[in-house]
Each structure stands twice: as C-alpha cells, then as structure tokens.
Amino acid sequence: MPAMPGGGRSPRGFLTDEEKKNMPKVTKALLLRILSYLKPYWLQFLFVFLAILLSASIGLLPSIITGRIVDQALVGKNMKLLIQLLLLAFATLTASHVIGVLESYINAWISQRIIFDMRNQMYDHLQHMPHAFFTTERQGDIITRMNTDISGVSSVISGTLSQIVSNVATVVTTLVALFTMSWQLALVGLVVIPLLILPTRSVGRTRWKLASASQAKHDEMNQLVNETLSVSGSLLVKLFTREKQEYERFRTVNQEVTKLNLKESRSGKWFGVVMGMFTQLGPLLIYFAGGWLIISRGDPALTVGTITATVSLINRLYRPVQSLLNIQVDFTRSLALFTRIFDYFDMKSTIVSPENGKRPELQDADVCYDHVVFSYDPAKPLLTDISFTVPAGKMYAIVGPSGSGKSTVVNLIPRLYDVLGGAVRLGGVDVREMDLEYLRANIGVVTQETYLFNGTIRENLLYAKADASQAELERACRIASIDEYIRSQPDGYDTVVGNRGLKLSGGEKQRLSIARVILKNPRILILDEATSALDSISEHAIQDALEQLMEGRTSIVIAHRLSTILQADRILVVQGGVIAEQGSHEELLARGGVYRQLYETQFRTILDLEEKHETKA
Predict the structure, then answer these.
(1) Is 90 exceeded by the pLDDT of residue 401?
(2) Helix pair 28-38, 79-127: axis angle to 10 deg
(3) Pick from 23, 310, 283, 26: nearest CA to 182
(4) Which residues pair with residue 396 across a beta bridge?
(5) Model confidence at 591: pLDDT above 80
(6) Which residues of 277-292 are buried (b: 16+ CB within 10 A; e: fewer)?
(7) Strand, helix or coil for residue 38
(8) From 444's CA, which of 257, 311, 361, 579 has a CA 20 to 30 Å away?
(9) Residue 529 in contact with residue 560, Cβ under 8 Å?
(10) In 391-462, beta strands by DSSP E
(11) pLDDT reported for residue 581
(12) CATH of domain 367-442+556-617
C-alpha cells in the first residue's frame, strides 16, 4: 500500500478526503522545478527509458514464439525447430530479465542520488533557518520532511515515473502485436477490461475504508506505545501504579487493530478470487472466438498458434492497463510530495549574514541596547523601549517577573531573533551588520536547559572547539568542577552521556555545558539562569569557575539567586517592556520599587532556603 505525503498509508487508486482538499495545483513552474532535480541525470534517465522500451519489445517475443511453436514445431512435428524455438524463447526471457535488472539498478542509483541531493539541500536550508522557526514548527513535521517525504521521492522516481513509462510501453507494444496478429481476437480480449475496472473500484473503496480505519487505530496504538514506553511515560506509569490499566488500554486497541486487519485481509482474498475469474475470462473468450472463427467460419488466416499467442499477450496486457487507470492518483500524490518539500525550501530565513559582514574587534567591546523594540506577536508587544549599555569587562544582571522578556533581551545579542525597532550594538557596530558566524563565535551562552548530544563527554566538549587538546579539555573541566566526576567514570572522557545527557544529573550536565563554553573562550558571555539546575553546594563549587569565566569578559547574567545577583556590577530590572529600574542592590532596595518587591517575594525566600541548607550541612 503506497505511502501518502506525511507518512500515512493510503489505498492505491483512491485519494483521501485530505488529499482531495489539498490537491496541488499543476503549474508549469512546479513541473519545471521538479524536473530541475532530474535534469542532472538526464543521460541515465535516457538509458532507463531505452531499457524499458527494449524490455517491453523483447517481452513480446516469448508469446509470439509460442504461436510458432504450436503452428510450426508441434503441428509440423519438427523436433529440431521445437528445440530452437524453445531456446530462443528462453534467450528472449533471459534478455528481458537482464535488461530489467539493469534498468532497475540505474533507476535505484538515480533515485538515491536525487534523495542525496535533496537531503543535503534540506538539511543545509534548515540549519540556516532562524531560531523562531524551530520554536513554532513541530519537530515531528521537520523530521517528516527530512526523512519520510524526501525518501518518498525514491518511490516517485523508481516507482511511479518508471512504472508509467513501462506500462505505456507494454500496452502500446502489446496492442500493436495483438492487432497485427488478429484484430478480431484483439477486440474480444479488450472486452474484458471494463470487467476488471468495475470490481477494482468497488472493492477498492471497501478496502480503502477498512484501511483508513485500521490506520487510525494503528496511530492510536503507536501514540499509546510512545507515551507509556518512553522514559518519562514509563516512570509516570510506575509511580501511579497504572500498569494494569495501561495494559487493558493497549489490549483493547490492539484487538480492534487485529479485527480491522482481518476484515481487510478477507476482502482482499475475495477480491483476488473475483479478479482471478475475470482475468481467466478473457482467454476463455479468445479461445471461444478463435474456435468459432476456425471451426464454424473456416478462417484460413487464423491458426491455433495465433490463438495461443493472443491469449499469452492479452494476459500481459491486463495488469499495466489496471495500473495506468491510477495515473491520476499516483501523479497527484507525487506532486503533493514535492509540494510539501518545496514548501520548506520556500521558507526564507529572516536572519542572514550580510554580504561582507563586519568583523570588529570585540576584546574590549561594550554591549549597547538602543531603544530596542521586539515582540513575538504584533498584537502582544514584549519589549517596547529597552535601552542600556554594559561597559566592556563588566557583569550586569537582569532580573524581572516571569514572562517579562529577560531571556528575549539576551537572545537579541547573538541574533537568535532580530529587533523590530532600535538596535543592539557590540563595540558600536549593529549586530545585524556583523558577519553572523563571527558574531556567534565570539558569544558564549550557558542556558537554563542544557542540551547534550547522545555521545561521549569528549564529543560534547569538542563541539565547542573541534581541535582542542586533551590538556585543554581537562583544564576546562577543572575550572567547571566537573573533572573529578569524569575521572571517577570507568571510561573517563569517553563516557556516553545518553540521550540529552540523561545519564548525568542536572548539576553535572550544567557544569559540562559551562566547561564547553570555557573551551570556546568567548569575548562576550551570556548566562541565562545558568545555575538553576544546581543545588547550593554545587552552585558554590562552580561559583569560582563562573567568576574566572567572566573575568575580563563583558557578561550579562539572568539569575534568580540573590548570591549571583549581588556579584553584578549593575542590576537591570525588566518590567512592562522597559528597563524599569537599574542600580546596585542597595540602591534598588532603598528605592522600594519593582526590585524590592522581587526581593521580598522571590530572592529573599531563596536566600533563606540556601541559608537553611548551609546550616544543615
């Protein structure tokens, strides 16, 4: 059963309601765009089409030779001729199959090369999409485009396109041969074709409904499996002792899937029986018509061999005719597949590196926000007028209520998002005028949610500096207070951290991410709640590391712990889309404004908890 764009199953010969609704518009531009991927391999395609035509022509010979075997060898009782004709038939069959294998190989090579090209293009395109794309687009959709949709191109090239050409070639050559031998018998054989079409459409609709219902239940079962057998899901099931209930849910859905599959299988068996009867009806009618012409009419031009050859050829005709009836469906699905892929290719990146982007010296660069305006949704302004300057080498802390836009403020520096108004400048240069790779290479970020690849500690560290020596890795890990943990592991730096660093604790992951930034050695440092995953003891253990990391660097820290905020050269309070207050800790407390309120409701509580933990320790 062919795959639909997006990965679902759909019965051959029918379009789903969704496919009909989203049927792509066939335009010259779309067809030319598809052909642009095929154009580099036009010579290979030419060989494929020639091979298909040659195979279709040679495929006629065994049937024609069968007629000669009957008329000349068997009726004429010529053993020598019989052997020669049998060998010739075997040779033509062998040649047809060899050509078919060669055509299949070239076809597979072409389709895999096109997939290779498209995957590379898609991956490169997605790598350069702005951060906003990944926060709004569903990850499953991205993976579907990269894997399922592009892989589906293979079936279009090696399947749909080749089958259409092959079926047309087979039908044309077979019809020519049939009418050349006997136009009367050819017409009789063609009478059966409508009988093949009608049950195919009728039974096909029934199987379509069953297949659709089965797919829906399969999706439900897959969802249940994904939810309950994932790491987090299985943990939740165990903690709430829901094993029996979840098993019953799965058993019920699995039973429904089984019933639907059996119904679909039964309808398919009966369909096979009906189709088998109709396909045998054609030859029977030809034998009857041929017998009548020879026996009753005494047609001298018609022979037993001609009747035998006609039967063989008519059997060769039915399958490609059925397939060609589905051209519209196959063509529509193929266009829909390419359209989905092109939809992603047509998404323009809003954040690009300018041509001949500037590369200013950032060693002593200050960070300046000049009346910055930004919002994710035009109807909901987030930053309306942000202005402040962080002098070179200083550390500023940003605080504010939840949802006030603290993280958004710092995300504008490496251009994860671009300002809608005003400007962010480093060393007096607007970040939008700087070479994007150079800009981000000079900025180090430690985020609240640490992301580690499913590899070794070494591989995750080398992501910051691919050519780092072992001594550099060890130095960075010592500064980040993670070296002792690494040395305690049997595999040391070759310890596998698991998916998203699952085998490490929150504090270990965070310290490893800090070591990674230390290895990067950036000019400007951003810490976005960098110690949020650490307990008090772990935080104190790496506080010196952070101080060393920030020394001599322009740093902006988003923090919820007072101990971190107190070390800042200046505190910025974000509220209502502006810098509502700024100053030292004492100055802001004395002012009795937003900061004082945050201190009383958040920082003071956290500080008291820290003091209690330290007392117990």
Answers:
(1) no
(2) 110
(3) 310
(4) 556, 570
(5) yes
(6) ebbeebbebbbebbee
(7) helix
(8) 579
(9) yes
(10) 395-399, 421-426, 429-430, 443-446
(11) 92
(12) 3.40.50.300
Within 10 angstroms of residue 187's Cβ, the number of other Cβ atoms is 12
Poorest-pLDDT segment among 17-31, 313-327, 349-363: 17-31
Residue 422 C-beta-side C-alpha neighbours within 13 Å? 21
Domain boundaries, the chain: 21-182+322-350, 193-301, 367-442+556-617
Q: Which of 418-427, 445-454, 510-519 shows the lowest mean pLDDT across its residues?
A: 445-454
CB proximity list for 354: less than 8 A, separation 6 or greater:
432, 433, 434, 435, 436
Q: Which one-letter DSSP state was computed for residue 573?
A: E
Say how far apart CA 263 and CA 276 lie, in whole Å. 20
pLDDT tens digits for 546-568?
A: 777 777 789 999 877 777 788 88
* Closest C-alpha among 120, 134, 141, 111 to residue 6: 141
pLDDT of residue 326: 66
Cα angle 328, 334, 339 (rounded to 5 degrees) comes to 120
* Locus of tokens 């054989």: 189
**CB-based burial label for 360 (10 Å; 0-12, 13-18, 19+):** middle
Q: What is the DSSP letter of 159?
A: I
- pTM beyond 0.85, yes or no: no
CB 361 within 8 Å of CB 426? no
More confident of the two residues 299 and 110:
110
pLDDT digits (tens, 9 = 90+) for 565-579: 888 899 999 998 999
Q: Is the distance from CB of 185 to CB of 288 less than 8 angstroms?
A: no
Q: Mention every residue, 6+ apart, whose C-beta is less than 8 A from residue 10.
A: 1, 2, 3, 4, 16, 19, 208, 211, 333
Q: What are phi and psi of 148, to 5 degrees?
A: -65, -50
Q: How far apart are alpha carbons 254 and 36 in whole angstroms?
A: 45
Q: Are 48 and 120 contacting, i.e. CB atoms less than 8 angstroms apart?
A: no
DSSP element (H, E) containing 441: helix 436-441
* Coil/strand/helix, residue 264: helix
Query: Which superfamily is assigned to 21-182+322-350 in CATH?
Result: ABC transporter type 1, transmembrane domain (1.20.1560.10)
Query: What's residue 609's pLDDT?
Result: 52
Q: Are the CB atoms for 382 and 406 separated by under 8 Å?
A: no
Average confidence (pLDDT) over 303-312: 83
Q: What is the DSSP letter of 229?
A: S
* Average pLDDT for the chain: 81
Q: For 580, list phi and psi in degrees, rounded to 5.
A: -70, -35
How far is CA 393 from its chain centroid?
43
How big, in percent rounded to 5, are the helix, strand and coil portions of the chain? 65, 10, 25
How many C-beta atoms surround the C-beta of residue 127 within 10 A?
8
